[in-house]
Design brief:
Elements lengths: L1 E10 L4 E9 L2 E6 L9 E4 L4 E2 L13 E2 L2 E2 L4 H9 L4
Parallel strand pairs: 1-4, 1-5
Antiparallel strand pairs: 1-2, 2-3, 6-7
Length: 87
């Protein structure tokens, strides 16, 4: 699958600027402007939105009790989601 996210504000660890992101087969293939975009790419207009390519959420709550219930994700499915590249 190919995905092109355009006209968003890309937030990286060292900068924030209006840019485009090209993703091919689940891997970031390019960040910038003037990227070569294949015809078979799914395109998403991110104008006015923040785009965080490769973002990782290091603070998660798995099996966390909240009153008399707990969060939906447990360590097994949360771990599988992380291994599959989920945030």
């Amino acid at each position: 699958m190919k995905l092109f996210i355009h006209d968003g504000t890309v937030v990286n660890s060292d900068s924030t600027k209006k840019s485009d992101v090209l993703i091919e087969d689940g891997i970031i293939a390019g960040v910038g402007s003037g990227l070569h975009v294949p015809d078979d790419c799914r395109k998403i207009n991110a104008e006015g939105l923040l785009v965080m390519p490769g973002g990782i959420d290091p603070h998660t709550h798995l099996e966390m009790p909240v009153g008399d219930i707990s969060t939906a994700d447990n360590f097994e499915n949360g771990g599988k989601a992380a291994l599959a590249g989920g945030t």
